[in-house]
Amino acid sequence: MGKSKLIAFIVLSQLLIIAFLVFSIYKKSLPKIFLSLISKESVLSTKTKGLDYFYEPSPNSLDKANTWIPYQGISTINSDSLNERYDYKTEKDPGIFRIITLGDSWTYGLYVDTDNNWPETLEDLLNKEKTCSAVKKYEVINLGVWGYDLQYAAKRFELRGAKYQPDVVIWFVKSDDMLQINELILPLEKNVDAEMRKNGEFQKAVEEGDYYASWHKAYSQYIDKYPEESIVEKQKKILSDFDSVYTNPLIIASFLPVEPYYDDIVGSFVAGRPNTYDFRGLTNPTEYRELHFSGDPHPNENGHRIIAEDFLNYLVAKDFLPCK
């Protein structure tokens, strides 16, 4: 082998080793709870100061559950990492009324096609039933992501949502979400998931229909490890800090009943922030067999439509819309 070829071979070998190491580090950094539900090609690990586990859907991708999940809706991810049928212009044209939705998998629309999640359905209902001369078009932009907590939803709005200049933000937060802090849970879940896969416990759980077993076990450890009072105070601060990126009308929505800590966190925030509304009138799909997947609490297509109709009725009743 000539000297030039030898040098080229050494350089190429070193580049391959570096590429392999980078890929290995990247792969290990992704939160496994979500890779266990969603194909890893659909996850983008976004470098964010202070958030070691923050992630988003990969732009311009088709997001679907792994093949062993029985619910196989396909999400169309646009160029801005949003579960949307379209790309939206950053600059809002005259006559456009924009709503941004925040939340977790229930807002994202896990296991249903993009067309059928409640933000898309709400957009269609608004444009069909509430058109008028003051509004050329309603746009509902979905920033929800599976597994998000308050902190991740707020950060996603800062990174992706603020530039769209929404007229209203709807933040759908279920009562159980109020104690979830991903930066504390995900390190625990990573260890739990690895152990459960090693000893066969994870596969057994899947066969029994529990697709979230590692999360459940890690969440239990998290609750035992961190006092509820400290979690509540952290969540209050996250909501309070949201004002630094958004000050327009905000609707925080949930089901009834809610836990006392939900009242504590949301109640104090709503009372101290202008143009902030506490909507607890959403239909809970888990209470109706026809509104959620069999064996899973996530809303199906029917459940998403009911939620969209609930929001439409609320927006009209509270005069959020510029047209009747």
TrEMBL record:
Keyword Transmembrane: yes
Ranges annotated as spanning the membrane: 6-26
CDD domains: SGNH_hydrolase
GO molecular function: hydrolase activity, acting on ester bonds
Keywords of the record: Membrane, Transmembrane, Transmembrane helix
Domain of life the protein comes from: Bacteria
Keyword flag Signal: no
Name this polypeptide is given: Uncharacterized protein
The organism of origin for this protein: Candidatus Woesebacteria bacterium RBG_13_46_13
